[in-house]
Design a protein that fits this description.
The complex is a heterodimer of chains A (116) and B (110). By secondary structure, chain A is an all-beta fold. Chain A is globular and about 40 Å long. Chain A has strands spanning 5-7, 10-13, 19-24, 31-38, 42-50, 53-57, 64-68, 74-78, 87-94, 106-107, 111-115. By secondary structure, chain B is mostly beta strands. The radius of gyration of chain B is 13 Å and the shape is globular. Helix content of chain B is 0%, strand content 56%. Chain B has strands at 4-6, 9-13, 18-24, 31-37, 43-50, 55-58, 61-66, 71-76, 85-92, 99-100, 104-109. Chain B starts with a strand and ends with a strand. In chain B, a hairpin with a 4-residue loop joins strand 7 and strand 8 (71-76). The chains are: A mainly beta (116), B mainly beta (110). At the A-B interface, strand 5 and strand 10 of A face strand 4, strand 5 and strand 10 of B.
């Protein structure tokens, strides 16, 4: 089974631009979450999508948005980029909640975004 | 809100045991996890423990949970250079998001 795939692997943008990141979950997984990873802050939760609906949202400004398509693929968009948006953006998918077994997140390798 | 804390760095000699510690604040946490991140890669699930357990062992990995003190530890026996990575502790309760710690960077010295 193919893992979680994120594209592109690297991105360089300038302040004020916008960017779109893509994530393809493991086949059969319907939940996709996005995280921002920075050296000082660790992993910060952005949002989670399930069946094309946003289920949860973290404490990020409205410049950060996302969506999920009917095939469970997800995109994340950041508008009006700021220098502080430079980070590794990780996508994670999970299968349906499996009760006693526990929920498990499966991560992609991430998109490294640099804002100049 | 919920918080998960870890020390940021740990260095050990090859062949020694490594112990990575984590504390969390959410008393309703049902599952606690350890993830490993190698350079240039995403997070890989190492192991997890249900909150009604005290210990879980999986080959070289031993997880200890002290629910009273909200303290979780990961012990890696016979640490190898390939174990050098960042280790994240995470907690999860029903209906809530995963909360990750800042990660502990483990360096294994030859």
């Amino acid at each position: 089974k193919a893992g979680v795939t994120q594209t592109p692997r690297y991105l360089i943008k300038t302040r004020g631009q916008q960017v779109t990141l893509s994530c393809s979950p493991i086949s059969g997984h319907r939940s996709v979450s996005w995280y921002q990873q920075t050296p000082g802050q660790g992993l910060q939760f952005l949002f989670e999508y399930f069946s094309e609906t946003q289920r949860n949202k973290g404490n990020f400004p409205g410049r950060f948005s996302g969506r999920q398509f009917s095939n469970s693929r997800s995109e994340m968009n950041v508008s009006t980029l700021e220098l502080g948006d430079s980070a590794l953006y990780l996508c994670a998918s999970k299968p349906q909640f499996t009760g006693d077994v526990g929920e498990k997140l499966f991560f992609g390798s991430g998109t490294q975004l640099s804002v100049l | 809100g919920e918080d998960v804390e870890q020390s940021l760095f740990l260095s050990v000699r090859e062949g020694d045991s490594s112990v990575i510690n984590c504390t969390y604040t959410d008393s309703s946490s049902t599952y606690l996890y350890w993830y490993k991140q190698e350079p240039g890669a995403g997070l890989q699930l190492l192991t997890y423990i249900f909150s009604n357990m005290d210990m879980k062992q999986d080959q070289r990995l031993t997880v200890l949970l002290n629910k009273k003190d909200k303290h979780l530890s990961l012990r890696i026996a016979d640490t190898q250079t390939g174990d050098s990575a960042i280790y994240f502790c995470a907690e999860k309760s029903y209906g809530q998001n995963f909360v990750f710690g800042p990660g502990t960077r483990l360096s294994v010295l030859p």
